[in-house]
Amino acid sequence: MDDIDLTAGGRPLRAIDAESGLRYWDLQIGDWDHTAPAYGRETVFVGGDRLRALDPAPEDDPANGSAIRFEREFAGRVGPGPALDDGTLYVVAEVEDEELALLALE
User: Fold this and answer.
1) d(CA 80, CA 23)
2) CATH at residue 59
3) How many Å apart are CA 76 and CA 99, to the nearest integer?
4) Would you call 6 helix, strand, or coil by DSSP?
5) Whole-model pTM?
6) Which distant-in-sequence residues (6+ apart) come within 8 Å of 48 by Cβ?
7) End-to-end CA distance of the chain
8) Is 11's pLDDT higher than 80?
């Protein structure tokens, strides 16, 4: 992941080569534009229409695309972005209609 940039924001999550600008892969994450990916534990975590955990480069080659390790849906959107701290993943998610909660997932 050292040479890969990840971008999101109301568009697909994209993995782009930092030097050449080559786009490796895109992943639709919904149309909510207030989310950003987080990287840790060799995994990309991203919100949007649900929480996703991705293997950014299966077989150590980002050209192989992302692989979804898990997805978790809530009542609504997830974001503005997940955060990792000491092995715990924190996300803000809409758990009921117009009710947001900060969740700690291990």
Assistant:
1) 24
2) 2.40.128.630
3) 9
4) strand
5) 0.84
6) 8, 13, 29, 30, 32, 35, 77, 78, 79
7) 22
8) no
Domain that holds residue 26: 4-105
Does residue 52 sit in helix, strand or coil?
strand
**pLDDT at 102 exceeding the cut of 70:** yes
CA distance 29 to 7: 11
Name residue 89's amino acid. Answer: L
Could you count the other beta carbons within 10 Å of the beta carbon of residue 95?
Answer: 12
Length of the chain: 106
For the chain, what is the domain count? 1
Rounded distance, CA 82 to CA 18, Å?
22
Please give the C-alpha separations between residue 17 and each of 3, 14, 48, 80, in angstroms, as whole numbers. Answer: 6, 10, 23, 24
Q: How far apart are CA 106 and CA 104, in angstroms?
A: 7
Q: What is the pLDDT of residues 35-92, one digit of tens each?
A: 888 888 889 999 989 999 998 887 778 888 888 999 999 999 998 889 999 989 999 9
